[in-house]
Specification:
Catalyzes the reversible adenylation of nicotinate mononucleotide (NaMN) to nicotinic acid adenine dinucleotide (NaAD). The protein is of the alpha/beta class and 226 residues long. The protein has helices at 28-41, 64-75, 86-89, 96-107, 119-124, 134-137, 155-164, 189-197, 208-217; strands at residues 15-21, 45-50, 81-83, 112-118, 139-143, 177-179. The chain has a six-stranded parallel β-sheet with strand order 3-2-1-4-5-6, sandwiched between helices. Helix 2 (64-75) packs antiparallel against helix 9 (208-217).
């Protein structure tokens, strides 16, 4: 199943990609996923939404304000990318279903909301709060991330794909589950934080403005000299 779209088959309605995560820190892999999704799915924009209080992951290193600022710096000069602070302003756990509900109320019934996931998140989707409601609020688009396979998925996800899987996004506000491809980008937040803690400077894996922000505030432990 592929969501690659031809230029002559652009949808009539606006399409907004939603990319959530802790972004602790945001890195080139996140940006590559967003760029690939925008091209493959004919997205008009991608909103990066850092979590406030993550209910599934353990503690994060940078606080919500710092992670939001890093996202803002990373996307500041990229047309069609924007940071969204709604989850960092929300009290309590950050649930994706609440975020999509808010966006649907703000934007109305017409725009297509497209939740962008990596294969690790798709496999874990049945553990999410009210996850079955997501396709009634928007579409789901997934790409393979690192070495997490899209084969032999959990039974609940196989059922979801049987009911909602499509070759390409329907020109509708919600209801499709599609796959899209992206080039491999071997980077992870865990590895980056370990490198920064060792005093390394992984310049090729972080947007320059983000690396400067990390160094200026001495986030993630030791930082190396320039």
């Amino acid at each position: 199943m592929s969501a690659q779209r031809m230029a002559q088959d652009l949808p009539a309605r606006r399409r907004i990609g939603i990319l959530g995560g802790t972004f602790d820190p945001i890195h080139v892999g996140h940006l590559a996923l967003a760029r690939s999704a925008r091209a493959a799915l004919a997205l008009d924009e991608v909103r990066f939404i850092p979590t406030g209080a993550s209910w599934q992951k353990g503690s994060v290193v940078a606080d919500a304000g710092q992670r939001l600022e890093m996202v803002r710096l990373a996307v500041a000069d990229v047309a069609g990318f924007r940071a969204d602070d709604r989850e960092t302003r929300r009290s309590g756990p950050s649930y994706t279903v609440d975020t999509l509900t808010e966006l649907r109320a703000e934007l109305g019934p017409d725009p297509a909301l497209v939740l962008l996931l990596g294969s690790d998140q798709l496999r874990n989707l049945p553990t999410w709060h009210r996850w079955r409601e997501l396709v009634s609020l928007g579409h789901i688009a997934c790409t393979q991330r690192e070495r997490v396979s899209l084969q032999d998925l959990p039974p609940e996800i196989e059922e979801l794909l049987r009911e909602h899987g499509r070759q390409a996004l329907a020109d509708a506000a919600s209801g499709s589950v599609v796959l899209f491809s992206m080039p491999p980008v071997p980077v992870s937040g865990t590895a980056l934080r370990a490198q920064l803690a060792r005093g390394e400077r992984p310049a090729g894996l972080l947007p320059p403005a983000v690396l400067e922000y990390i160094e200026s505030r001495k986030l993630y432990g030791r930082t190396s000299a320039r």
